[in-house]
Structures are given as structure tokens and as C-alpha cells.
UniProtKB/TrEMBL annotation:
PANTHER family referenced in this protein's UniProt entry, alphabetically: OS03G0690500 PROTEIN, OXIDOREDUCTASE, 2OG-FE II OXYGENASE FAMILY PROTEIN
SUPFAM superfamilies on file: Clavaminate synthase-like
Keyword GTP-binding: no
Name this polypeptide is given: Fe2OG dioxygenase domain-containing protein
GO molecular-function terms, A-Z: dioxygenase activity; metal ion binding
Family according to the record: Belongs to the iron/ascorbate-dependent oxidoreductase family.
Annotated InterPro entries: DIOX_N (IPR026992), IPNS-like_FE2OG_OXY (IPR044861), IPNS-like_sf (IPR027443), Oxoglu/Fe-dep_dioxygenase_dom (IPR005123)
Keywords from the named record: Iron, Metal-binding, Oxidoreductase
Pfam family, one: 2OG-FeII_Oxy
Amino acid sequence: MVVSNTGKNLAVTTADYDRTRELKVSDCMKAGVKGFVDTGVAKIPQIFIDEKSDFDMPHFEIPTIDLEGIDKDETRRKKIVEQVRDASETWGFFKVINHGIPLSVLDGMIDGVRRFNEQDIEVKALYKTNFDLNELPAAKRRVSLYYPMAPVPPNPEELPMAFRDIMIKYSKQVNRLGISMFELLSEALGLNPDHLKDMDCAEGQNIGCHYYRACPEPELTMGRHSDNDFLTLLVQDHIGGLEVFHQNQWVDVPSTPAGAIVVNIGDLLQLISNDRFKSVEHRVVANHISPRVSVGCFFSTSLQKSTEMYGPIKELLSEENPPIYRETTVSDYTACYHSNAIDGNSVESVLQHFRL
């Protein structure tokens, strides 16, 4: 039985399907709508129905969490923790509003990245772009600049003039928000608020500034991927284009409301939470209208902690919930991640290397 998104039957069952009769109906339709009506058919002929259509696909919206009053009202904080828990366990993605970072700072960061990329090529050539993604064909339509901002920030002169001052200001504010998110995530796991921070999950902070050129083939996408960190905070311009893979379909992550910041769980947080929180694949869909700008803040350990081992948090384990993953260093996981990303594999295949 074919059913519309309104719940009404659109055609008879396959057993009752008379293709010859409906082909005759299609001939009548050459006379236009009147020809169709004159046949006396009350239902849309099955021949005209695409059974692979999206009519029956459920509509999803990424969760939006309002952080207003988080430090003033204990009841309010508990509700926010519950929302963060639910979003992290079911989506791995959510947006936060009233997070404390002024809209002027977010807009200034986006505008600065745009200004940099729209300068003369001689100026841009002074800075290394695209990091280690040059080997990926899809990266050719994206220009990226990456800067480690913590624990040791770069010399300001190393930052492009177009966004030097705003980057320093943004980095400090997004770092504070990141620590707040780790506190909420710790509480959502039933741990002390400082647990993830004390594990140095927020010690390293890398900021990636991305400029996606307008593309004449909008059906193209930047390859689906997960993030190989603990947590990512992302601000995107009004163009949008970010999609997250949820329940076997791609769901749009709109840039509204203004000032919203996208939060997504990284692979390493899925690993240490023993699969409680989900790192999910996402992608950017091309658009042919204008360039797209986004700025991601990636939280992980510092490079100096390359030998520290990370595995499922012991406080989360029990006989009923044994460890799923073996311990690994962040550097080893990162190496495996980049190897698989270049091969075009998914997040599941990377984490699979570390399953017990």
C-alpha cells in the first residue's frame, strides 16, 4: 500500500495493481487534467507514484538548547543537562543559543574569514591552507586555515591581518563556552562537572576557518566524515549547507536562529563514553549562489600529551556495561582517522579498529 505523508492511501496494493488499465489511464491524461478526471479514477494511478519517494520519510529537526539561566537556577540547569544528554545520545549534534558569545564576535569572525579569502592571491599565498586535506579531491573547492589556539596561542603576527584581532577574541570566548559544554556533558554522564575537563579533553583548542567556493554543481558534497576530537563548536554563515546523518537520512542543520552555535560530539568522546554519546557523520552540501564560510573550534588534548592513554571512563563501566573499546593515545587515533578518511571510510570503520 502506498501512503502519502498525510496518511491517505494513494494507490491499490501490488496484488490488485492492473498496469495495463493504468497505462490506458495515462493515455487519457494526454488530454490534460480533464482527461484524467473523465476516466473516473479516484486515486492517483500507481504508475505515476515513485515508491522510493521521500513522502513517507519522517521530518527531523536538530535539537536547539537554550542555555539562558544555566548558572542561576539549579532546576533550570538540570533541565538543560537532560536536554544535552538526550541530544548527545540520540543525535550527537545540537545547537545552543544564549551561550554568552556576542553576535558581533561571531559575525566578526565570519566576516574576517570571508575578507581573507577574497583578497588577492598573493596575500593568501603567505599562509598555508587546507591542512592535510589536500589529498582529498573534494577539498579542492574548500580553502581552510587551521590554528592551534591553546594551550599555547600563536604569535599574533602568525594570524592573517583580516581576522587577527577577532580570532584572538573569539578563541577566548569559545574556549569558555567549550569548558561549560564539557561540564554539562560530564553531568549528563552522571559524573562530576569537572571530570572531562580534568581529563584534559578541553586542553587543546584548534580553530579551523573554512571558505567553500560557490559550486556550479550543487549536487556535489564535501565528503561525509566525523570529527576526530572530543567536541566541536561550529559557527556558520547564513548560507548554511551543513547536514547531519540521522536515522538513515541527511538532516539539514540551518544557520538559524542568528547566533546559534552548532555542537557536535567527536569520535574520542564516543570512545571514552563507551558509546553513550554518539559521534555521527556530517557533510556540507554545495551551493551555486555564493561562497559559504564556517569556523570550527575543535577540542582535544595538547600535542604534549601524545603518550597519555584514553579509554572508556571507569566510572561508567559495570558488569552490565563492560568496556567496548581498548585504550589508545589521541595521536594513534588521529593517525588511524586520517588514514581511513583518505581512503573514504566512515566513522564506524575508524572506531572499529579500537573495539575490543
